[in-house]
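Quick log. Single chain, no ligands specified.
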Amino acid sequence: MMRQIEESDYGVATAPNEVRFERSLPGPVERVWAYLTEADKRRQWLAGGEMEPRAGGSAKLLFRHSEFTDEDPPEVYKEMNEKGFLSEGRIIAWDPPRHLAMTWPGDGADSQVEFELFPEGDRVLLVVTHKRLADRDEMINVSGGWHAHLSILEAVLSGEKTPPFWSQIKALEAAYTARFNER
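-> predicted structure:
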């Protein structure tokens, strides 16, 4: 059974070029860390690809959404969905199992994604902060993407049916457009 989207699931703009997400996930913290850092686990909710487990190491993310959703993508994402898209960044921080940060290639300048893990009993608070976004449009785009990807991660870790991915994106981008226009 898929859970309802809660108000707390939405990312929050913490600066004009930054958005932050929080999710309470089934632990232990080492398990959640593995889903962030191990290619075979990460590909189930975000992207495969290898990471060098050290600050300064490479972070190769191979996005192939067809590995976790059966939905047909919008035409603009069809080739990426089927063939994959390789995004190459750098590890900024590597402190298992608490903190991972990496550059996130974008149009023009790289942004930065930070994952922080906080054990809370048998659960783990995952905080994802995407920083140094180029503009409001990029902020809306990555917010919809992170929201959808984190919903899939939560379902995978909970042993639940994964929610749809592509059909959420348009609605999420509209929701984030409205949210960020309120600021």
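The helical segments are 29-37, 39-42, 78-83, 136-158, 166-181.
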